[in-house]
Write a structure and sequence with these properties.
The structure holds 2 protein chains of 2 kinds. By secondary structure, chain A is mainly alpha-helical. Chain A has one domain (2-233, 314-437). Chain A contains 15 helices and 8 strands. Chain A starts with a helix and ends in a 5-residue tail after the last helix. Chain B starts with a helix and ends in a 14-residue tail after the last helix. Classes of the chains: A mainly alpha, B mainly alpha. Chains A and B meet through helix 2, helix 3, strand 2 and helix 13 of A and helix 2, helix 3, helix 4, helix 5 and helix 12 of B. Bound molecules: protoporphyrin IX containing FE. Protoporphyrin IX containing FE binds next to helix 6, helix 7, helix 10 and helix 12 of chain A. Protoporphyrin IX containing FE (HEM) binds next to helix 6, helix 7, helix 10 and helix 12 of chain A. Chain B: Belongs to the cytochrome ubiquinol oxidase subunit 2 family. Chain B: The chain crosses the membrane at residues 6-39, 84-106, 118-142, 162-184, 196-216, 231-251, 258-282, 302-324. Chain B: It is a multi-pass membrane protein.
């Protein structure tokens, strides 16, 4: 592999990783804030408004960086993957353009209205604005995933004039692969949002400060978390069986299936050995369950690597372990949320210091799960950039080594600066609690330069 | 509608989206460039932040749309333009990062070092963006060094006198736009200081604009299309008229009208450039045969038609809620009420 290609892939991975540090919280947190605003309209209880203000502030800090890192994504296909863009642009470009027209304008404009108008406009208008932001962020996910779904499962196209051309827009938009991904991604973003709010609330509850405020916040997040985490194994399972059908190589990698089999068993503990095309360890085996996972039938046939040419296989270890990690975390999230629900019903939430601590320290785990998920989806698709149509090595721009080095190093440096600033601010404002912003009003004016 | 017709319509829309972006972000970039020189204390900085705060995010989406529309409608241009101009494009991205973070993070911490750093990040990025966009578009008007094997130029090669003049032109126009915007949105000392700047800046902008037109006529083939269809001269003529009116209104202190005219100046300037490029989207300075025309770059007919449909439905909706937000924040921002980004 040439250096430029390797570094370009590296750059893409890094920029997408940074972008996806911010986006899931944007998508997940905003629905909670919108819900708080709605409750404020319905009950006129100022507590909800304070909740929206507090979480909204954290949202805003995170939101900027989502926008900023997103701009890189918008142009990066051109700068670094020009061959890909020429070949794919006719189909890949339009979802991006539609995303901007339908979603980005909506979220950015109404974010401005909410941020600067929240003390001026009526509660109804506040709620309306924030719902528009929520709508925008969720729709934006739909369109970018429509684009990604095409890479996973190309539909509605025809190869003509040396490139892919659009033939049936409807098929592209209703691509079942994209919809599977969309539902799974959105719901996992809600998990991120819910865990974030629960963790920050737990921090304050552990200190017994702003108890009413953070108990309420915790409750809201817990409800969202319960729904999202409980749904996820089912949704993920649907994704898995569908992905395996559409991309047998990815499917085989998920459970490291080497031989095509009917009645495939499932091993709770398993260590694959890709070199020798076998598993070194298969432990705690449940017969036939594997087939059920793949095909919804205990005797269903599962395609193994024996039917897949060597140069069309992804890296099995990466896919396998990422998948296991995601699933394990997913099950842990379900357990945590239901236990929290139990404590809540028993009115023991605030005393359960251990539970609150566990919640607090779990805040980053949904991010881990999400990234593991993307690794499964994207690494599992390799060596293809566009499944069955274009290999990654063919996609790169003819730029020079010094250019890619320059951009890669600068991006890492700048993104890291921004990330440090972001984490610093998030921690600071999360710890400050809800009422501090009004308390320091008088103090602000002293800081004149 | 034939494939060619939709492709031409999309060329027009493509130019229009970039143009709207420059008109709208122009005042925010201008505000950014003037920021440390106009605001002397926290309250005044709040005023300036609030003057652009509700709008800049929505305005920047025009740039993202320009990227997406280029990708969707002219994939080959999207691919070549941004990989040919790799280094300036990266610099633009970096500046966009720090423009946004500078503006929004500046007052989120009380430490003096924090505030000063982000303040200057905001300002320097704004200057860089104006310059870089100016240089980039001047080079598009001028023609790029595109040969048989693709782009043969270098980053420094873009910084020829005409390119630099373009950078200067954007910078001076945006400064005027920013100063006038601040006068429209705020009252008090900042507005006063903005006026002190608007007067000389408007003269500079008008002079640079004239130089740019002279250089364009001497150094580029941009005006060829106008000679072929003389009726088109109306557009650059309007640029001149608007620039002069802008000058006049600035000196008469009729700020609303002056702002309208600086926007029209930018608008017709960009229109002149795009008309001059037609039908090229990536003009080659080496030989016409290496240029990429809109017809060569266009996406498929179906794609262009669907995108046109989406644009026809969405753009009016977007414009109406953006206008609504301007209306919502139409009150002037005073020192006492300004909150800025908290
Ligand atoms: C609990 C059981 C879970 C199962 C069975 C599961 C299954 C899967 C599968 C098979 C994929 C790859 C789909 C493809 O390539 O088309 C995937 C991707 C993904 N997963 Fe999971 N997942 C689970 C839990 C989670 C959790 C808890 C999260 C995050 C909080 C998560 C986030 C993601 C994301 C973001 C992707 C990439 C987008 C996509 O391909 O849908 N998953 N998941």
């Amino acid at each position: 592999m040439s250096d430029v290609l390797l570094l370009s892939r590296f750059q893409f991975a890094i920029t997408v990783f940074y972008h996806f540090l911010f986006v899931p919280l944007t998508i997940g947190l905003i629905v909670l804030i919108a819900w708080m605003e709605t409750q404020h309209v319905r009950t006129k209880n100022p507590l909800y408004r304070q909740m929206a203000d507090f979480w909204g502030k954290l949202f805003a800090i995170n939101f900027v960086l989502g926008v900023v890192t997103g701009i890189t994504m918008e142009f990066q296909f051109g700068t670094n993957w020009s061959e890909y863009s020429k070949y794919m642009g006719d189909i890949f470009g339009s979802p991006l353009a539609i995303e901007a027209l339908v979603a980005f304008f909506l979220e950015s404009t109404f974010m401005g209205i909410w941020l600067f108008g929240k003390d001026k406009i009526s509660p109804k208008l506040r709620a309306f604005s924030i719902w528009m932001v929520a709508l925008g962020t969720n729709i934006s996910a739909l369109w970018i995933i429509t684009a990604n779904g095409f890479m996973q499962n190309p539909v509605g196209y025809i190869e003509r004039n040396g490139r892919i051309e659009l033939q049936n827009f409807w098929e592209v938009v209703t691509n079942p692969y994209a919809w599977h991904m969309f539902v799974h991604t959105i719901v996992s973003c809600y998990i991120v949002g819910a865990f974030f709010v629960m963790a920050v609330s737990a921090w304050h509850l552990l200190r017994k400060q702003h108890v009413v405020f953070f108990e309420k916040s915790f409750k809201y997040a817990l409800i969202l978390g319960l729904i999202a985490t409980t749904a996820t194994p089912f949704i993920g399972h649907k994704s898995a069986s569908f992905a395996a059908k559409m991309q047998p190589a990815k499917g085989a990698a998920l459970e490291a299936v080497w031989e095509t089999k009917e009645g495939l068993p499932f091993h709770i503990i398993q260590i694959p050995d890709p070199k020798n095309e076998r598993n070194i360890v298969e432990f705690l085996t449940i017969p036939k369950l594997g087939s059920y996972f793949y095909t919804h039938s205990f005797d269903g046939k599962v395609v193994g690597f024996d039917q897949i040419p060597k140069d069309e296989r992804p890296n099995v270890n990466i896919v396998f372990y990422s998948f296991r990690l995601m699933v394990a975390l997913g099950l842990y999230f379900v357990a945590l949320c239901w236990y929290g629900f139990y404590l809540y019903r028993k009115n023991k939430l605030i005393e359960s210091k251990r539970f609150l601590k566990v919640v607090m320290y779990s805040v980053l785990l949904p991010y881990v799960a999400i990234n593991a998920g993307w690794v499964v989806a994207e690494v599992g698709r390799q060596p293809w950039t566009v499944y069955g149509l274009m290999r990654t090595a063919e996609a790169v721009s003819p730029i020079s080594l010094s250019q890619i080095l320059f951009s890669l190093v600068s991006l890492v440096v700048f993104y890291t600066i921004l990330l440090i600033a972001d984490v610093y601010l998030m921690l600071k404002y999360a710890k400050k609690g809800p009422y501090a912003s009004t308390a320091t009003k008088g103090g602000e004016v002293q800081h004149v330069s | 509608m034939s494939h060619e017709t939709v492709a031409i319509i999309w060329f027009g829309l493509w130019g229009l989206i970039w143009t709207v972006y420059f008109v709208l972000d122009g005042y925010t970039l201008g505000t950014g460039m003037l920021f440390p020189f106009l605001a002397k204390n926290r309250q005044e900085r709040n005023q300036l932040q609030e003057a652009v705060g509700p709008f800049w995010g929505g305005n920047e989406v025009w740039l993202i749309t320009a990227g997406g529309a280029t990708f969707a409608a002219f994939p080959a241009v999207y691919a070549d333009l941004f990989s040919f101009l790799y280094t300036p494009m990266m610099l633009i991205l970096f500046a966009l990062f720090f423009r946004a973070a500078g503006l929004e993070f500046m007052h989120k911490d009380e430490s003096k070092r924090w505030q000063t750093s982000w303040k200057w990040a905001f300002t320097i990025s704004s200057v860089a963006l104006a310059l870089l966009f100016g240089v980039a578009f001047a080079n598009l008007f001028y023609g790029l060094k595109i040969g048989p094997s693709g782009y043969e130029g270098t980053f420094l090669g873009l910084l020829h006198p005409y390119g630099l003049l373009g950078g200067l032109l954007f910078t001076s126009l945006f400064i005027v736009s920013g100063a006038l915007w601040i006068m429209i949105k705020t009252v008090g000392d900042v507005a006063q200081r903005a006026y002190q700047i608007a007067r000389p800046a408007s003269v500079v902008a008008a002079v640079v604009l004239s130089l740019f037109f002279v250089a364009t006529s001497n150094r580029t083939t941009l005006f060829d299309n106008f000679t072929k269809a003389p009726i088109l001269w109306i557009v650059p003529a309007l640029t001149f008229v608007c620039a002069l009116l802008m000058l006049l209104f600035v000196w008469q202190k009729r700020i609303g009208l002056a702002f309208a005219n600086i926007c029209l100046t930018i608008f017709t300037l960009m229109a002149t450039g795009f008309i001059g490029m037609f039908p090229n989207m990536l003009p080659s300075r080496i030989d016409e045969k290496y240029s990429t025309t809109l017809f060569e770059a266009a996406g498929s007919e179906l794609n262009l038609k669907i995108m046109l449909g989406v644009a026809i439905v969405m753009v009016p909706i977007i414009i109406s809620y953006q206008l609504w937000s301007y209306k919502l924040f139409k009150e002037k921002i005073t020192k006492e009420t300004a909150k800025g980004y908290q």
